[in-house]
């Protein structure tokens, strides 16, 4: 195994939410939680999604962890944290091998999907959600740099009965190798540490660091017809064409107008029937 990628790891048997626990711990003693600290739990009873949806995991069946990041980049570059964490998870899972490893990808900006080859599911086709990322910005450092808690959840050994919704899957169900949670966390940390260092070396410029191209290469949303439900109720229909330097999704509508999507619920749509193939809760606003 490679060198420990984390500066600190706190392991708990059970917690409500790893992100809540880490956020409270950092508030109580900021100095005890340096950059690339991790809080991991065997059993999470009240995990949270962006819109406040709750979920729990059976003990030992999933990777449930939150990371404390203090990247040396301008605060306005912070939305890239979600994309970089997603890329790290995709690479760590792919590195585990398996016939469908190449089917694992990132759904902009915070879901990790895999085509598990099972029967088509209304609204999803054969794609299923394997994991997700939730980034929460904390008050910035004294020099104005971002401080963030990045929650990471990956389904490992659950069967269909223990998953909360039919659109979810696990490595076991998808026929992919199932690592121990600690091993996958180590792999994610190794990938993420390297990505963040490259990002810092270019002052948060993901394009100059080559990270924009690397995220684009694993992003399953690009080239798809999407429906974006934006804050305030507006709905945008179009094709997801690219990511820009700020990590925004660029969508071209039917009139050919380009839109930069910073926040909203993004759903993949089948062009033939106009039906929704899957949604992702998104909010990259600082």
Automatic annotation (TrEMBL):
Any Gene Ontology CC annotation: cytoplasm
Keyword list, A-Z: ATP-binding, Biotin, Ligase, Nucleotide-binding
EC number, UniProt record: 6.3.4.15
GO MF annotation, one: ATP binding
Every BPL/LPL catalytic domain range: 4-200
Enzyme class: ligase
Domain of life: Bacteria
InterPro entries reported for this sequence: aa-tRNA-synth_II/BPL/LPL (IPR045864), Biotin_CoA_COase_ligase (IPR004408), BPL_C (IPR003142), BPL_LPL_catalytic (IPR004143), Transcriptional_repressor_C (IPR008988)
Listed Pfam families: BPL_C, BPL_LplA_LipB
Protein name per the record: biotin--[biotin carboxyl-carrier protein] ligase
Organism name: Georgenia satyanarayanai
């Amino acid at each position: 195994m490679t060198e420990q990628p984390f500066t600190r790891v706190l392991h708990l048997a059970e917690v409500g939410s790893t992100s809540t626990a880490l956020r409270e711990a950092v508030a109580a003693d900021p100095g005890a939680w340096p950059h690339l600290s991790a809080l991991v739990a065997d059993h999470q009873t009240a995990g949270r999604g962006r819109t406040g949806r709750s979920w729990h995991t059976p003990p030992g069946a999933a990777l449930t962890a939150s990371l404390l990041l203090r990247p040396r980049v301008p605060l306005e570059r912070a939305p890239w944290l979600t994309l970089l964490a997603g890329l790290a998870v995709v690479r760590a899972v792919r590195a585990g091998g398996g016939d469908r490893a190449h089917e694992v990808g990132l759904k902009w900006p915070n879901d990790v999907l895999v085509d598990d080859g099972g029967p088509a599911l209304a609204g999803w086709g054969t794609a299923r959600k394997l994991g997700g990322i939730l980034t929460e910005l904390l008050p910035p450092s004294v020099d104005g740099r971002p401080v963030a808690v990045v929650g990471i959840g990956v389904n490992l050994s659950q069967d269909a009965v223990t998953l909360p919704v039919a659109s979810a899957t696990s490595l076991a169900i998808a026929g992919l190798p199932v690592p121990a949670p600690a091993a996958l966390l180590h792999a994610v940390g190794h990938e993420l540490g390297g990505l963040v260092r490259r990002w810092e070396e270019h002052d948060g410029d993901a394009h100059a660091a080559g990270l924009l191209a690397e995220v684009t290469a694993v992003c399953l949303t690009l080239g798809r017809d999407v429906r974006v439900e934006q804050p305030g109720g507006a709905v945008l229909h179009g094709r997801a064409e690219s990511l820009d330097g700020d990590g925004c999704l660029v969508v071209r509508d039917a009139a050919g107008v380009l839109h930069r999507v910073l926040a909203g619920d993004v759903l993949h749509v089948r062009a033939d029937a106009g039906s929704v193939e899957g949604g992702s809760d998104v909010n990259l606003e600082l």
